[in-house]
Design brief:
Length: 293
């Protein structure tokens, strides 16, 4: 279950990274909570869909890290199919002593450097990469990490921590993204619920699975319950009401079951507190066999 918890935390961060068209100015870093293990980090880019041919849309690159000491510089590369999207520009979101972006056909490199102070732990945007759709189609936005380092106080030596960093890629598409599918074997919904209220979704299971794990992640300050039920009769098929664990300010609850094909009602109930959540369905089938209604 420890592995699953790490996967869910990784997924939660990815959900937060889903981008919309638009951009903002360089800003003061106001990080959210880190959802990664100590002294590790993730660089992830949000996916962008429904971009009209000839239109420009921005995909935002994020970092989620718990490095101590703070990381001081990095090069992050993003590549894509140049026949589908054309590089327009990059807007750096961080103000530090050395930043830059060098882009061209099918690629851009983001360079960050705050060698003396380092970058804070937590999750926050690094840059928005603006791409123009050249034709109807879809291309991966592949993220790779050249290096991540932190520096000595006198700036004479550095320590390479690249091996503790992971990359998460995204998608740029002129069509709709399959929003309920994060990766083969995963489906999700994100939302918020008021204290004492309910939030519901329909889950459409189209194939028999060997197993299903139904998980909910939410802020540790709240108390949420998860129920999977028959939408016609209201009969509860399975539920999760007892936290499995808490970590980095987040609570994890889940139920393990085997769900037959059919439509199910997913209900999230807040018994205490108002807040956001991520509902995640982890299963062993390909995403083409699954849809979210």
């Amino acid at each position: 279950m420890k592995v699953l918890k790490a996967i869910i935390a990784l997924m939660l961060f990815t959900l937060i990274c889903v981008s919309s068209v638009g951009a903002s100015e360089i800003q003061t870093i106001n990080p959210g909570s880190a959802t990664v293990a100590a002294n590790t980090g993730i660089f992830a880019i949000g996916s962008v869909g429904n971009v009209g041919v000839g239109q420009t849309a921005g995909a935002t690159l994020y970092v989620n890290n718990a490095w101590n000491p703070r990381f001081g510089d990095t090069y992050i590369d993003v590549t894509w199919d140049p026949s589908v999207a054309e590089y327009v520009s990059t807007e750096i979101k961080l103000s530090s002593n050395t930043t830059g972006a060098e882009g061209g056909a099918g690629h851009v490199r983001i360079a960050l450097g705050d060698f003396r102070n380092g970058y804070p732990t937590g999750s926050y945007p690094i840059a928005t990469i603006n791409l123009k759709a050249l034709k109807a189609g879809t291309t991966p936005l592949t993220v790779s990490i050249d290096h991540v380092r932190y520096w000595s106080s006198d700036l004479t030596t550095f320590t390479d921590i690249t091996s503790s960093a992971r990359a998460l890629s995204g998608t740029f598409s002129t069509g709709a993204l399959s929003g309920a599918v994060l990766d083969p074997g995963y489906a999700y919904e994100i939302g918020s619920v008021q204290s004492g209220a309910w939030q519901t979704y329909t889950m459409d299971v189209r194939s028999s699975d060997d197993y299903d794990i139904l998980a909910l992640v939410y802020n540790q300050a709240n108390d949420f319950d998860l129920y999977i039920s028959n939408p016609q009769t209201g009969a509860v098929y399975t539920s999760a009401t007892t936290p499995y664990s808490t970590e980095n300010g987040l609570t994890y609850i889940w139920a393990v079951s085997t769900i037959k094909p059919g439509k199910y009602l997913v209900s999230i109930h807040s018994t205490s507190g108002t807040g956001n959540f991520a509902f995640i369905h982890f299963y062993n089938r390909q995403p083409t066999q699954r849809a979210a209604a």
